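task queued by scheduler; priority normal; single chain, no ligands, no partner chains; default sampling; output format set to structure tokens
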Amino acid sequence: MPESDRLSASVTVAVCVEKGERLLMVRKKDTGLWGLPAGHLHSGETIMDAARREAMEEAGVAIIPFAILGVYYFSKREGLSMCIVLRAFVSSKAVFTPQDEEVQGVEWKDAKWVRYLITSGELYRPEYTAHNLVDWLNGALFPLTLLREFSWAWIE
């Protein structure tokens, strides 16, 4: 296959941090829009590490991932855009102080507010986040064991 035919891909990791029937949402400073803690996967970083990093940077919380919400993707002119979303709990007393300058605030939101947000026009990156929130409201849950990092050590 010629190099020019290879697909370019972007991978984002997002986290639904939960507390009972509430979801931790972050508000972006530049737009005032609401979203989940999320960001691009860094080189050499695992999906779990990226989820933990984003939750700490954007919401100021340490998390314990417990399930996969879903894997979402769409094709763009520039290539494939993929988002892996985990479900998690807060692991300790949280300060909820965002370390990311792009975040204006962090709040727990109930399911009624999340339903409103999906169609309100106040949602950051709705091409990803609306599907994430609908699936969270519907209880989507897949085991973390679906995320398996593989190595070639067994070949030696």
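post-processing summary
- The chain has one domain: 3-145.
- The chain has a mean pLDDT of 89.
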